[in-house]
Write a structure and sequence with these properties.
InterPro entries: Poly_Biosynth_Transport (IPR050833). The chain crosses the membrane at residues 21-40, 46-67, 88-108, 128-148, 160-178, 184-202, 229-249, 269-292, 304-328, 348-371, 378-397, 403-430, 442-461, 467-486. It is a multi-pass membrane protein. Pfam families: Polysacc_synt_3 (PF13440). This is Wzx. With 505 residues, the protein is mostly helical. It has a domain at 1-249. The protein is 81% helix and 0% strand. The protein contains 18 helices and no strands. The chain is globular, with a radius of gyration of 23 Å. The N and C termini lie close together (8 Å).
Amino acid sequence: MPLWIFKSNLLKILSNYIGKIWNLISVFLFVPLYIHYLGVENYAVIGLYSLILALISFADAGMSSAVTKEFSFEGNKIYYKLNILKKLEVLYGGVLVIIFFIILASSSFITKKWLSTDSINFNDLRNYIILIGLGCSIQMIATLYSGAMFGLGKQVEANFYQIVWTTCKSLLVVLLFALINSSLYIFFIWQIICNIFYILLLRIHVMRSLSYGDIITPPNFERKIPNHVLKYIGGMTLVAIISAISSQIDKLIVSYYYSLEIFGYYNVVSVLSQIPVFIAIPLASFMFPLLVKYKEDKLIFESIAKKFIFSLYLIIIPAAILLMFYSIEFLDVWTKLNFSGRENTFKILSQSLIGGSLFLAMQFPFYYILLANGKTKYTIIQGFFQLIIGVPLLLYFSSNYGIQYIGFSWLTINFLGFLFVSHICLKYYLKNIKGFYIWKTYIFIPFLITLFISGFGYYFYDLMRFNFIFVSIISFILIFFINLFITNVVEGRGVFDVKYLYDFY
């Protein structure tokens, strides 16, 4: 392949990672500042923003991924893409307006019956819920335009806009705290303002990108959403609802059974545990359009899928296991919260949540392989059984063993989900790739190497009290390159061949 294609692919992957890394860095930078200015209990209210945003994400119903899918296909004309976008804008916008009014109508109930707080008065907390509903509803529409930009191959630009948006809404609000007042009203109103400008910026870019080429609509063109798109959205709706509930049910239960302060602590641990997922999302965002583009060429499709699995697991397995070893150390340095006397509780909680997130991130290649083939029924089945198993487990651990064991439900359902979705993909959609080979080469061997080096490093850290961040970085680098070298040798490449990681053709 030409060098410029390698560079283009690498640039897109890097831009995805830079965007997501900046999101992650902004969380690690600004969460301690939010806690400093607002306190743990008020920070927990900010956590409700993330919770409600995740819960109403079902409103997307696959519309953003449908746009990405349709815009990625080179055979679709510009006028067809414009029609799809405009029709989905109306549909998406209508759904989000309804959701906002539902949140508005239920704000008093949520404040009075669901949340428990001693320091925030009823009216303020209710107003916060209303502002959260408005901010989340506005923010959701951005996924439609972001999906369009990814489908058009404008990943670098989309990530640049996301970085600017994240910086404005995260950094500038801290300046407002310092200059005006450390109030949640300032926080939520500023989020709404930033969301509005972000949407306008994305939409302007998308419409400009679609203003060239065959934009004149033929007279016989049917101006409605195509049936195959509606079918895809219909299948994704149930997937989105199940996914939203299963991924956030733990926070719903913690926010109901425990005080806002405990929910604040749980939310901090939960954010740390999502790092494997944060790592997986950028690569998945790059890979999905490629999988769609080459779904008819099974040889290339399977090659891309195999490299997707290898590249992702090479990073997330050591990252997750190192996080498990040093979870309390990271929490101490990051938040400056007092975990004294609670170390064992939050160690167990963080390790189980990180393990669950690792198995969730490991599902990403198989999930997007199914989406590229337009198959949503397996994800629906998976999500349905995860709810049936996960909710009773969550309630059992919560009521009988306390908050430290709540994460075992998350770990269990994602491990079982990984087994299911990987089996389906390898059996029906990656028939030329041996399941045993994937397990042995990409999972089992990297796990063993990671556990050995991580355990060895942690032993010396505990014995000599080295800087744990330095030990973690050295351990990760060693694990990464040892696993890469071993796989290269097994698959007949040069020992130092790294081009394989970004040459997806």
